[in-house]
Amino acid sequence: MAKIQMKIKENIPFCDGLVCHLKLEWNNPSESFNFVTGQFVTLFLPGEEKGAYFAISSAPEENGYLEFLIKKTPGLGEKLAALKAEETLFLEGPLGKGFPIDRYKGRHLLLIGVGTGIAPLRSVFRSIIRRRSDFRYVHLYYGVLTPSHFCYREEIRDLRKSDIQAFLTVTTPDSEWAGRTGFVQGHFVDAIPDPAKCVALLVGMKEMVDQCRSELIRIGLNPDQILINY
Predict the structure, then answer these.
(1) Please, which of 30, 42, 160, 190 could form a disulfide with 92 given CB 3.0 to 4.6 Å?
(2) Selection from 140, 17, 144, 11 nearest residue 83 by Cα
(3) Which long-range contacts (CB under 8 A, 24 or more apart) does 82-88 make?
(4) pTM of the entire predicted model
(5) What are phi and psi of 68, to 5 degrees?
(6) Domain finish residue from 50, 66, 95
(7) At 162, which CATH number?
(8) How far is CA 83 from CA 7, 8, 63, 98, 198, in A?
(9) pLDDT in tens, 178-213
C-alpha cells in the first residue's frame, strides 16, 4: 500500500494538552479515498518507517480533509501533537472493516466508547446527522476517567439537536460533576431501547470490549448485533 502525503490544516489541543485534534488536507487531491465510518489509517512522520494506527474521526461525507484525535503519548503521539499548520506527514489506509452503518437502516444504534475511542464514533455520529431519518433511536455511551478528559464536549452536547442522546459517565468524578459515574456498561440497562432491534458499535481496549459485550448480551442483544471496527 502506497503512502499518501498529507498536510496539517489545524491542530487543536484538548484535555489540557493531553490530546489534540488534527485536521489533514490532501497534498494531492487525486489521492483522496472513500472510507467507511470507524475505519483507521497508519500515520507516519516524514523519514520514519514506523507508524501507528489512528481512527478517522471525520465523516465519509466530509470531503477534502480527514480528522484524527491524537493522544499525546511518548514517541509518535507527542511528535504528531507538536505538528503545526502546513507541516506534512504520511498515511496508509483506509484499514479495518469499520462500522458499515448503511446495513442497519431502521435499527436502533448504540455507540459505545471510552477515552479517545470517541474518535471513530464521532465519524459515525457526524455521518448519522446527515441522514438522521435512516435510523431509529441513536444513543452515545461515552466514558472517561475524569470530567476534564471529555473530548468534543460541546459537539457532543449539541447532539440532542439531531435527536441523538448522549450518556456521559466518569470513573473518577470531581466535586463539580453531577452526571453519571462508573463504567459505561453500568448504564446500558437503564437506557437501551428494545434490545432485539439494536445494533451496538463498540470501541475500546479488549477488557472494556469484553465487559461491554457481556453486559449487552445479558440484557438481550445477540452476539451478531455487536460490532467492532477492526
Answers:
(1) 42
(2) 11
(3) 83/8, 83/11, 83/22, 84/8, 84/11, 85/8, 85/9, 85/10, 85/11, 86/7, 86/8, 87/7, 87/8, 88/5, 88/6, 88/7, 88/8, 88/27, 88/46
(4) 0.95
(5) -140, 155
(6) 95
(7) 3.40.50.80
(8) 10, 7, 22, 27, 40
(9) 999 999 999 998 778 789 999 999 999 999 999 999
* Domain coverage including residue 166: 101-228
User: Which CATH number covers residue 84?
Assistant: 2.40.30.10
- Look up residue 46 and give its amino acid: P
Q: Which of 95, 110, 141 is the last residue of a domain?
A: 95
Residue 12 sits in the same domain as residue 58: yes
Grade residue 102 by pLDDT with cuts at 50, 70 and 90.
very high
Residue the block writes with cell 468524578:
173
